Amino acid sequence: MRAVRNKFARPCYVVQCVLCVFLLWSMSGCDKDNVNAPLDPNKAMTDPSVKPVVLSTYPSNTAIGPFSGLPSPGTSGALSFYVSFNKLMRPNYLISPCTTCSGFDYGVNLSTGPPYPSQPVSVLPFFVGPSGGFDSIPNTIGKTYSIRLDSTFTDVNGNHLAPYTLSFTPEPYFRIVSSTPANDTLSPPEGVVTLTFNSDINSGLLASIHITTPLVYPWQIVGGRSEVGTALPSIKPNQSITVTLDAGTRDTYGNALSAQYTHTFYCVPFRVSVVPIYYSMNTLTEQFSLNFTYPPDTATIIPSLTVNPETPMAYDPNFGGLYPLIDYIPDTDYTIMLSTGIQDTAHDELSTPSRYSFHTPPFVITGSWMGGHTSDPIDFYFNGNIDTASILSAFSISPNVHGAFNFSSGIIFIANPAFSANTSYTVSISTVVKSSRGYHLAQPYTFSFTTGSN
Question: Which CATH class is domain 15-169?
Answer without folding.
Answer: mainly beta
